[in-house]
Design brief:
This protein is of the alpha+beta class. It has three domains: about 10-110 and about 230-240, 2-Layer Sandwich (Alpha-Beta Plaits), CATH 3.30.70; about 110-225, Gyrase A, domain 2, CATH 3.30.1360; about 260-420, Mog1/PsbP, alpha/beta/alpha sandwich (Protein Transport Mog1p, Chain A), CATH 3.40.1000. The protein has seven helices and 23 strands. It has helices at about 10-15, 55-70, 100-105, 170-180, 215-225, 325-340, 405-415, and strands spanning about 40-45, 80-85, 90-95, 110-120, 120-125, 125-130, 135, 140-150, 155-165, 185-190, 190-200, 205-215, 235-240, 265-270, 275-280, 280-285, 295, 310-320, 345-355, 360-370, 375-385, 390-400, 420. The strands form six sheets. The protein has a seven-stranded antiparallel β-sheet with strand order 16-17-18-22-21-20-19, with helices on both faces.
């Protein structure tokens, strides 16, 4: 995503991390110290998710985690992290000249938390801890999240995710899962939903998610481990000194849209788009260089003809040159009609619609494809549009016998497509 434009530094930015010395009785104020050259980030600390430690120890642990992340990026100058009033911390990067790069080095600061669906909304799950205090189950109680996988043939891979808790988190997990037996709980990172879990039996010290796709399991394990923080932080703003930028306020975080909590967002900052895929689908390595993303249903494999073979794939970006949507679409259809890859091609429907503010074509068609078990008649829905100098093609396919089952999923995937600013 493109970095936000920065503007000239005002006195507010300079005063953020400066110390003032005031004399008494008619004495003149001491001069304001000049900030050191570098990048400054400001975060707000939420001590509600502190776990079983003290604010001082939690901040000390958080400082160690943040510095470890920064130095792992190859930053060699000594980073300074300081507590300031109103439950905030500042992070100073000596000599740094880019706020967004500094934020990337800090990484995720949203804390893992478990939520229950109550009264039509997700609320943080709390329970009585060993100290007889009601507390939330958060990243402060996480020991480790790990994934284990197994394969079925060559093209199908399933995995199991284990979220392990320690300390007071063991008792909190047991009580929360016991009262939610047979229900669904949500895993959030900060205020953003990550995935939902069906509770089949009370957990002792481990929360299991299975079966899920292998790629998804690896992504979830990495994301959850990054959120095993002693306290959650919220980014407020940052600037670079000498005066070239101003503190930029970050809007308050809001929960991401996730239809029925069954979808995960994939963001491709290189090609500039984001899109939702079902959470139990997994990403596959795209061998075609034009492919930006390929997600596959866990039931879709060429070995088992009874399982639906589904690809959300072929989202590609290429130079459009002087083409218009009309001329490019005509050329694309001509290729389909004559392509040996699309034997038996037949159009089902075609309509005009609007995607991300641009005129687009929605095309549904059949074609015959080959698989180890024989020829399959595919049905495909494809959205095709031009944005600036790029062509975008969002394509979903399934055997015709499974179309009714997956049509609504395809509609959700396609309607979720967004271009990054």
């Amino acid at each position: 995503m493109k970095a936000k434009k920065l503007i000239v530094l005002t006195l507010l930015g300079i005063l953020l991390l400066s110390t003032f010395a005031c004399g008494g009785g008619g004495e003149e104020e001491a001069p304001t110290p000049t900030p050191q050259a570098g990048a400054y980030l400001l975060y707000e600390v939420d001590f509600d998710g502190i776990g079983h430690t003290t604010p001082e120890l939690a901040l000390a642990e958080m400082e160690e985690i943040i510095k470890g992340r920064i130095y792992a990026h190859g930053f060699t100058r000594p980073v300074v992290i300081e507590s300031i009033p109103d439950d905030r911390i500042s992070i100073f990067f000596p000599g740094a000249v880019d706020v967004e790069e500094a934020r990337e080095m800090v990484g995720n600061v949203g804390q893992f938390n478990l939520r229950e669906y109550v009264g039509g909304e997700w609320v943080i799950a709390k329970a009585m801890g060993p100290d007889e205090e009601v507390k939330p189950l958060t990243g402060a109680h996480l020991a480790k999240c790990s994934a284990s996988s197994w394969t079925h043939g060559e093209l199908s891979c399933d995995a199991k995710l284990e979220i392990r808790f320690e300390g007071p988190g063991v008792a909190l997990l047991s009580r929360i899962t016991q009262r939610n037996s047979g229900k669904t709980v949500g895993i959030f990172i900060g205020d953003a939903p990550l995935v939902q879990v069906q509770i089949t039996e009370p957990g002792v010290n481990v929360l299991d998610i299975a079966p899920i796709g292998c790629g998804l399991a690896e992504y979830l394990a990495e994301t959850i481990n990054q959120a095993a923080l002693p306290v959650p932080l919220r980014y407020i703003g940052g600037y670079v000194y000498p005066p070239s930028t101003e503190l930029i306020e970050e809007p308050a975080p809001t929960p991401a849209e996730m239809p029925d909590f069954e979808y995960l967002s994939y963001t491709d900052e290189i090609n500039g788009f984001s899109i939702w895929c079902p959470r139990d689908w997994y990403k596959k390595e795209a061998k075609d260089t034009d492919l930006a993303l390929k997600c596959v249903s866990p039931t879709g494999n060429l070995i088992n003809p009874g399982g639906a073979i589904i690809y959300f794939s072929d989202l590609w970006v290429e130079k459009a040159g002087p083409y218009t949507l009309g001329t490019l679409w005509a050329a694309f259809n001509a290729w389909k009609m004559g392509s040996e890859e699309l034997e038996g091609y037949a159009e089902v429907s075609e309509e005009q619609l609007t995607i991300v503010g641009e005129s687009a074509v929605k095309h549904v068609f059949h074609y015959s494809g080959y698989a180890p078990e024989g020829t399959i008649l595919w049905k495909v829905v494809e959205i095709f549009f031009v944005k600036g100098s790029f062509v975008y093609d969002v394509c979903c396919r399934v055997p015709t016998w499974a179309w009714d089952e997956y049509q609504s999923t395809f509609d959700t995937i396609i309607s979720s497509f967004r271009l990054l600013d």
